[in-house]
Every structure is written in C-alpha cells, then in structure tokens.
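Components:
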Amino acid sequence: MARKLLLEHINVPGINTFEVYSKMGGYRAVEKAVKTLSADDVVEEVKKSGLRGRGGAGFPTGMKWSFLAKPEGVARYLVCNADESEPGTFKDRYLMTYIPHLLIEGMIVSSYALGANTSYIYVRGEMMPQIKILEKAIAEAKNAGFLGKNILGSGYDHEIYVQPGGGAYICGEETALIESLEGKRGNPRIKPPFPAISGLYNCPTVVNNVESIAAVVPIINDGGDEYAKIGIGRSTGTKLISASGNLVKPGVYEIDLGVPVEEFIYSDEYCGGIANGKRLKAVVAGGSSVPILPANLILKTINNEPRLMSYESLADGGFPTGTMLGSGGFVALDEDQCIVRNTWNFARFYHHESCGQCSPCREGTGWMEKVLHRLEYGHGKMSDIDLLVDVAKKIEGNTICPLGDAAAWPVASAIRHFRDEFEWHVTHPKEAMERNYGLAKYADPLPAIEEVTS
Amino acid sequence: MLSISNTEEVVLTPELITKFNEIITRYPDGKQKSALLPILHLVQAEYGWVNSSAMDKVALYLGLQPIEVYEVVTFYTMFFLKPQGKYVLEICRTGPCCLVGAEKIMKYLEQKLKVKEGQITEDGVFSWRGVECLAACGMAPVLQIGPDYTFYENLTEGKIDELIENLRLKTADKSAQQIS
Ligand SMILES: Cc1cc2nc3c(=O)[nH]c(=O)nc-3n(C[C@H](O)[C@H](O)[C@H](O)COP(=O)(O)O)c2cc1C
Ligand code: SF4
Ligand code: FES
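Structure:
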C-alpha cells in the first residue's frame, strides 16, 4: 500500500472540521512556515520537491513561483484554480468536499511564500456546495488565528476569498480565469505578459491548481527532499487520479507517480479491472484534451516496455504513440464503446466551450463537430476522415490559448489509432447505426517496431 | 437564440443589497466589478432567472455600463435569460458520462417529463437541459439542481422516478401550506 500524502486522513470522521483536521496534525505546515522559515525558504523547499503543476500542464511549481515579479509597493496575488471542468477530472471536487482544510492550509503557506496578502479560490459556479464548505473552513481557520491579521504573531497578514465562476470550461485557462475574476467574459489574454508579471488587476499573480497547492502542505511538513523521494525520475510525489468510464471501481485514487498503468487498471487496490467482465478497448489518460490510446498502447509503450503512470512514461512515443498525464483524468472505454461517437462528443464539447476569439478555434471546432456527427450518423464520406485531420492540423498551434490544441488532439489521435473504425462507419453506415465496431485488434499485442516505422 | 424578454421591473430587496455590500469588500477599492458573478448568482437564486431589468439594476449598483453586465450574463452558461421550471434538472452529457449511459437517462427524463430540452412542464414545476462535464464523472450519470446545485449521482431510471416524485410532493406541500 503506497503512502498517502493528501488523502491519508480522508476517512477520519469529521476531518472536514478544523477541530479534527488540526488534531490529526493539520496546520503544522503554517506554524512551521511562518515561525521558522522565510518566504524564500518555502519556495526553495517546493523547488527541491520537484512538484509539477497538477492542473494539466505539469509546469514545475517552484520555478513558477520564482518567476513572480516583486515590484515595491505593488500587491501580489495567489489565485487557486478550482474551475475543474476538464472532462474526466473530478479530484479537486473530491478534495474540497472531504478535506477542505488541506487546501486552506496550502493556500496560507503558498501565499506566505509569494508574499500575497489576499488570495482567491476561483471555484466553478456549479460547485456551490463546495463553495459553502470552503467558506466555512476559512471562517474556522480565521477563528483559530491561522488567517487574518498577524497570523500566529508572525506579522504576516492574509485573507482568502472564494469566488464562483459562471459555467464556462475556458475559465480554467489561467488568463481567462483572471478575466473572469475581474468580472468579465472569460476570454483568454494574449501572452506575454505572463500573469507572473501582470495578472489579476495587472498585478503579479500566480495561478495554481487545487492539488498543487494542497501538495505544498506535505512538502513543508516533511521537506522537499522527502517528497522528491516518492515517484520516478522527474515525476515526483503522489498524484490524484480521477478514474471513470467502464471500470469496476471508478473514483479518486492517490497514487505514487510511477505505478504501472496495468496495475492501476486491474489491481484491486485501484480500479479493479473493466466493469461487467468486458475487455479494455481504449483509454483517455489525462482528461479529454490528451490523445486517446488503444488498449495495447496504453499498457505498453511502442518499445514494449510497461507504461507507467508518470509524466514521462505516458508521453513516451510522443504524439504518434504516446499521450500525456494531463490533469490525471483517466477514462477507460470498454469493447462496447464507439470511438467515433466518443470523438464526436468531445468535439461537440470543445465547440460549445470555445470562447470564439480566434477563427481557427471558433470555426474549426464547429466544423469538426459537424463532420464527426455525419460520420457517426451514417452520412460520412471517405474524404471526411482526411478532412478532419486537416482541420485539426490547421487549428493546432494557431490560436491564442491551448483550447484549440485541446480540441484538435483528441480528433487527430482517434483517427491515427482507430482509422479502420472511422472507415467502417463510411463503408457500413447502416450497420454502424445498429452495432458497434467492437474491440477489433486494438488490444492485440503490439506489432514489432520495424513494422510500425516502415 | 437569446430571448431577453422583459417582464416586470425587479426591485433589489434590502436583504440582497446587504449581501452585495458584503461581497464587494472582498476586492480592492475600485475593483467592485469583480463582484459581478457572485451577485448574478444571488439574483438568479432569488428570481429564478436574470431579466434585463435585474441586469440594469446590478449595473447601477456596481457603477457599470449595462452592456458590461449583459455581455457577462450571455457568456456564462449558468445564467438563464428566460423563465425556467421551478426545478431545472441539469444532466451531464459529456463523454465520460455517456460511456455509462447518460444518453439513455436523458431520453428517459425527456419521456418522463414530456417536454423537450429547455421547455417547461405544463405545471411549471420542471425543466431540464444537458450540460457539460460536472466534475463528477466517477459517479456518472449525474444531474444537478440549482440554486443550491444539489447533486444526484449514479442515476438510474428508478432514481429519476423517485427524484421527480419527491420534488412534485414537495411543491404540492408548499402550495397547500400557502392556501391554508
Ligand atoms: C482550456 C483550458 C482549461 C483548463 N482548465 C483547468 C482547470 O479546470 N483547472 C486547472 O487547475 N487548470 C486548468 N487549466 C490549466 C491552467 O491554465 C493552468 O495551467 C493551471 O491552473 C496552473 O496550475 P498548476 O501549475 O498548479 O497546474 C486549463 C487550461 C486550458 C488551456
Ligand atoms: S483558442 Fe479557442 S478558446 Fe482559446 S482564445 Fe482562441 S477561440 Fe478562445
Ligand atoms: S463527464 Fe459527466 S461529470 Fe464528467
């Protein structure tokens, strides 16, 4: 059983209250930081830990913090990204619901490190219950002297406010989130300037995911070096994985980075295998934005090495045969699922969520949705398949924010790996309406590497 | 299409204004525009939707041009621009939920309520719509009901029956109380 850092006490009754949380050792990290460490010491520990952003991009957190501009007399902000809208991802909701004080404690320590006296937690508007939970946790922490003026006599002042979103996936993108927090439409900003120089109210700002901020607590308690011992290579520490789809035990799991994918799917400690005795067809490993992989390529890399749940191993093979850890939204598709339908559903999602600022994203996502719809409903042409690849290519890299890429990759990768299934929809339109293509050869042993590259 | 139908004039109650006053203290001086989303949620919770009179009042309160409020209300999916049923059932229709039967549940809901997506039942109690991933994919299929956004997870046809029955009873109880 791996050691849990974030969810260790998740099953302790009353852990959502300050009383129980602090009795279990909570808020030690705040005491340690404000009483014994300088702000720079905290940043240094986070750097040593090797923690990488848990929101999707995987950027090293300590490095991000060290880029924060510190002009005299200008406020700095920490904004926690609790917008959690990437399809397949539900770990932040879980953490905030059951152990809200872990996030509040992380917010205080992180804000201290950044010299921020006011911080905001931007929670997607649909999570009203979680907003209430966090506000209660903040009030309790303040009552106990961990928030407000002169925290624990250290001279450090800090307030946290919770801000609701309005229901828009794009507001998870950090500059759109900042716009939204300023009371505007969630249109991403052109970078540079980066938020570290000019973010909220044009002040230096750090935006971090809920899980990244929570991870700062064990890092400060145990030291960055201890944290870095967990995991594998540059994938240090533990990660919350949201497991969904056709699994025996979907849910949120805290894993040591580096667990084999096969173990994660099939062992009883984690997902317990594929539901209803079915076989695995495909996996979307890191939220809807990352490339989909067929069963054989998610379990093993193209070099026939076991694939691991780590940033590097999941990306092994690059775009042709790899994927990404992303936000840790792990979606399993069984043999009865239709790849074309799933791809259409995702394309519909991105079209719906495009903010509309850039033509390639606004028009391209709509185009892909339409073409996929007609393939799924039996009106597709063979040339539609290459058309989709072409549209995806024209979006990728040509937009203000990464939503364009996020819309293009699922389509491009589905066609790359499941082209025969798309073709079958064209050649057998009636049959495709009545039954699914099935498992085909997607779970077969991988072909030898020469055959693949030739 | 947007139909911002103008009905009666909205008067922001003193209770609402008190809440607004607390919200704007969360932001630095001069940045009260940040209060727009939280305030709009309160307005919708009070009236069930956001009409243009309410938007104008909010603009006046925050010292904004009305257009600054309109453009925000129309950008975000949570705000309703026309009246809804008393309970709006919002069911997730995104990929991971569909893998475990969300589409079937949506069909069932449609048949059960006998109204299409976005329409209101004759008695005014229900409307429903599909929404995008609610960050609950492990408990799929799921639906939520505002303004508290209570969650209903691992939905089955039986659970839908039960939920709708309970909400109908609750509404009937309330109207009985009002009459007596
Ligand atoms: C379209 C889009 C949606 C995103 N949604 C989220 C989200 O819901 N939560 C999140 O933490 N990061 C999200 N991100 C990533 C953020 O832009 C940002 O990288 C992240 O919050 C940084 O925090 P981290 O370094 O702690 O991961 C999204 C990015 C894009 C492009
Ligand atoms: S890529 Fe899409 S979502 Fe991002 S800014 Fe452009 S139009 Fe908006
Ligand atoms: S896909 Fe339905 S909650 Fe995520």
